[in-house]
Amino acid sequence: MRHSVKLDRLAGALGGGAGPAGTPPGDAGSSKKQAAIYKKLKKFFEKGASLSSRFKSLMSFVEKASDEDLRKFFNEHFYMIYGVFLDTFSAYENQCKRGRHDAATLKDLLVVLKNVLVYLADYVKKGWQIRSIGEYFHLQANLFYF
User: What does the buried/exposed string (b/e) look like for 59-97 if buried means 16 or more CB atoms within 10 Å of the residue's CB?
Assistant: First the structure.
């Protein structure tokens, strides 16, 4: 129940505000599409969900959302997004050390990092997570050479 309230608030904040019966306003096609996009975030906000399901939920949203929605979402939830990103990268790094490389996970990690750099550029310019991001690039370079 608590997650649906959070999703309704998020939909409202991202311009999809809840209309009658909890559906976003607008024409029927766009409202269904908006509702589906916001529903993808349900697992992302579940603290008890596995890391992989939270990351997959984030990726589903990133792939479907508009630039405006992404900007708002990243600015409102940057700590949670970066935390999930960093934990997923650490898990991926451990997989690589055991000889298991996954190009799809690497691609998804790069997509999230790109979005962090694009939508949170002001934070990064001020030094937010700059060491962590630098470490990511350093580790990334080492993974390609070994």
Answer: bbbbeebeeebbbbbbeebbeebbebbbebbeebeeebe
Asked if 37 contacts 6 with a C-beta cutoff of 8 angstroms, the reply is: no
CA–CA distance, 3 with 87 (Å, rounded to integer): 22
Query: The tokens of 131 are what?
Result: 């060491």
pLDDT at 20: 33
**pLDDT score of 71:** 94
Tell me the DSSP string of 7-54. Answer: HHHHHHHTT----GGGPPSS-HHHHHHHHHHHHTTHHHH-TTS-HHHH
Q: Along the chain (146 residues), what's the average pLDDT of each consecutive run of 10 residues? A: 47 43 44 78 90 94 92 94 92 88 89 92 81 71 55
Counting Cα atoms < 13 Å in the Cβ hemisphere of 44 gives 27
Q: Which letter does DSSP use for residue 65 in this model?
A: S
The count of residues in the chain is 146
